[in-house]
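Structure, all six chains, one model.
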Amino acid sequence: MSANATPIEYVSASPAVRAVYDDIMATRNTDWVNNYWKILAHHPPTLRRMWANSKEVMGAGALDPLTKELIYMAVSITNGCRYCIASHGFAARHKGMTPQQHAELVAIVGLANETNRHAFALDLPIDERFR
Amino acid sequence: MSANATPIEYVSASPAVRAVYDDIMATRNTDWVNNYWKILAHHPPTLRRMWANSKEVMGAGALDPLTKELIYMAVSITNGCRYCIASHGFAARHKGMTPQQHAELVAIVGLANETNRHAFALDLPIDERFR
Amino acid sequence: MSANATPIEYVSASPAVRAVYDDIMATRNTDWVNNYWKILAHHPPTLRRMWANSKEVMGAGALDPLTKELIYMAVSITNGCRYCIASHGFAARHKGMTPQQHAELVAIVGLANETNRHAFALDLPIDERFR
Amino acid sequence: MSANATPIEYVSASPAVRAVYDDIMATRNTDWVNNYWKILAHHPPTLRRMWANSKEVMGAGALDPLTKELIYMAVSITNGCRYCIASHGFAARHKGMTPQQHAELVAIVGLANETNRHAFALDLPIDERFR
Amino acid sequence: MSANATPIEYVSASPAVRAVYDDIMATRNTDWVNNYWKILAHHPPTLRRMWANSKEVMGAGALDPLTKELIYMAVSITNGCRYCIASHGFAARHKGMTPQQHAELVAIVGLANETNRHAFALDLPIDERFR
Amino acid sequence: MSANATPIEYVSASPAVRAVYDDIMATRNTDWVNNYWKILAHHPPTLRRMWANSKEVMGAGALDPLTKELIYMAVSITNGCRYCIASHGFAARHKGMTPQQHAELVAIVGLANETNRHAFALDLPIDERFR
């Protein structure tokens, strides 16, 4: 796994890597795998580990699938990660995010980044009721 | 408004500041105002402006109120803003966030911050299907 | 130099460290040295190097001294560095920053952090005229 | 408003959007509008809200217009926001920023980001005099 | 798992949680467990998952254990995470980090954060030879 | 020095700039200079200052040269600085970083960014033993 590595396609993947790709496609009910996994595949233990984490964290739980994607996007927008915004924006639209919801997400992420800096600048003491 | 400013309490606030405090309490159906606003009050135009923004962005819309708070928390955790995590964690619990949902939020925010760095490190090319 | 190191006071400092402290006090026309330097002093090459950098970058130039401090604060607020906000806020007030100017600084830093995230979220193409 | 949205040009804009564009051009005494606003225009309430914020925060005040732009750039450089660095760099040059001033800005922003991390690493106790 | 949760001590832990604590102590050849794990323990699946990740990523590999801790600290210092700097600074000292090495680590992390901003500010084109 | 400045090549550089370029090439035992320095060259005092800092901080010390580059990369990946990841990745490979070591670096940086956010989210109290 080196920077600017070439994605490893299914046809040239080892059986261990193919097994992960197969599970990604089955879990997502789709016929393709995105570059994140195809580049992680240069280091199979990381591919296996990250897919297991992703499946557990983003899978069914107390938060619905769309909310999970919105949280993911909020982080990715804050960090300015272009790939992550594109991939999780795609996933969110696939899970039903409307343009109106996207506009609200962007507005909240912007506002939170603003007020976070007000809190830093003013060294706000945490209110007793919040503890 | 200076660093380590003293919060301005209702009793010593100007009528313009009181008007904002009154609207905050009415909108939130509560009897108190948290330090963020009481310290912004040293500069009334900022107090007025930020409350107007907050009310519009966090008010009723296409995303439900709890989801909005979770997005706010995701940003605040990513930035390490203690005050913001405390205040929006309080708001989220008030709007029904369960301990299980909180645990999932924390897990997603952690995972997204991890994979964001994988994407940076590997300079991932954005998949054609994501555009 | 280790975490939670004790500040090295003038009386117990080596001649090389005292020489830097003397220059800090002479340059700033003051009789004390703040903790940043007194803790860096555990590694004298870093103390010497950072003071030389600071003196050159923050010294007289095309930007006036107060503007330089405001820029420093903008960075420190964005990063949430409590020590840096406190020390450069002190320096800025010493150089004439008024409460009104401080309030405007905080507002700009907040707004910029907000619009930065809008730009990330929307993957804005850079306008031809900006190039 | 979705990622990779097409900028909405004046000729195809609604009257509400045109009114904001008109005010942007009149306020800036120019004949064009940059992409930030033309993409926000997919969600008119955000367009209106952000322009009102920007006009208030970046307008006449206790800090001169160039200083305001330099603060904006300091934030944008710290966050690595390419669009924002380009747009506010353009604005700063328009308001008189010289190459020498730009070089000093870059040097200060770099230095502040460096010393911010020294402060984090060493967990510096805030000096009594700074409080 | 909620903010400001109480650490779960061994005596009051469930068998599943105790099993992770036992493995942490055995792997580290020590008799105690730090707060990170004792607070994650409020959500056993996250405790189990994160310990498995940590053990795999920080275990024996192509990078020696001290280098791994220094990389961990570089990230934590950049993010300003006090807990992480304290815990991984402890681990690094335990694995042999000298005060001189610590001083060099802090200097490099500061310098890298500085030059990162120069690169952002100047929008540096990547040299052909680096590709 | 302005944004999108043209790199200053050796043939058109002033004697003062050439002296720095010569030292860079001699120190690195190579025949070329990368864009970071060629663009800093628009402001010779910054060129001279940063090269002196870089030479001192990244030169021989208590940490070996490869470890220094890995720490530099950890910061650059965390900040998402493409140029810096490319240039220090090149330097690290030149100093012997193997693909396996690179994969482990990426995994550690990802994990540390994840656990940093867990620490922020849970507001972890620092263990007494870490102090």
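Chain C has a mean pLDDT of 96.
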